[in-house]
Amino acid sequence: MHQSYLVFKPDSPYLRQINASFLHRQNMKQIAILLLGIFVVSCSPNKKEVQNTTADSTAVAESTEHFDWLLGQWSRLNEEEGKETYEHWDKVSDTEYAGLGFTMQGADTIWQENMRLVKVDKNWDLMVQSPGESEPTVFKGTVHSATEFTCTNSENDFPNTIKYWKDEDKLSALVSGGDLSISFAFERMSL
Predict the structure, then answer these.
(1) DSSP structural state of residue 79
(2) Which of 19, 37, 180, 187 has its C-alpha lying 20 to 30 A from 88's C-alpha?
């Protein structure tokens, strides 16, 4: 089989045309990438802080209607040695969040509960259910703001009150009833 090669002189008009065409395509690609980048940035939400006090109060009112700061996977910082406790929160809808809490000791799950934070009328109720329970225990929302919520159930043995709050980049919780209270400090787990 015979192979043939084309050889062009460095100053060949055909080679200059190929180089010009190649450079033109490279420039067009760069321009297209630049325009795409500008488009993406221009469509991103504006994160400027609102300076106007009326707008600030509106923003606070709107922000109390969601608890997106709960979202993600959390690891308890103040757990007993030999145990690991985690919580995972998802947003089901604008009016419902679902959480799963569990504690591991070695490879065994020694405690678990499912949680639902649901907007009922103007309040957010927390429903907690452990495996084997036929119905969740409902804690009625008593306080909620942009960074915390508190729910109570005076008829429950323990706890009577459950409070969650955002503390900078940490998640904190307190369960209490009678003379007993248990605090939880969580950090967000990196994925």
Answers:
(1) P
(2) 180
Read off the amino acid at residue 190: S
Residues whose CB is less than 8 angstroms from the CB of residue 123 and which lie 6 or more positions away in sequence, other chains included: 140, 141, 142, 144
The tokens describing 126, both together, are 């927390």
| pLDDT at res. 13 | 57
Backbone angles phi, psi at 59, to 5 degrees: -65, -40
Tokens 């180089």 -> residue: 19
Cβ contact 149:163 at 8 Å: yes
pTM: 0.66
pLDDT tens-digit profile of 94-139?
A: 999 999 999 999 999 999 999 999 999 989 999 999 999 999 999 9
Question: What does CATH list as the number for 65-188?
Answer: 2.40.128.20
Boundaries of every domain in the chain: 8-46, 65-188
Residue 87 is which amino acid? E
Closest CA relative to residue 97, chosen from 118, 113, 114: 118
The two three-digit tokens of residue 114, written as one number: 């499912």
- Residues 173 and 164: beta-carbon distance below 8 Å: yes
Number of H helices, E strands in the chain: 2, 10
Give the residue-averaged pLDDT of 157-173.
Answer: 95
Read off the pLDDT band of 190 (50, 70, 90).
confident
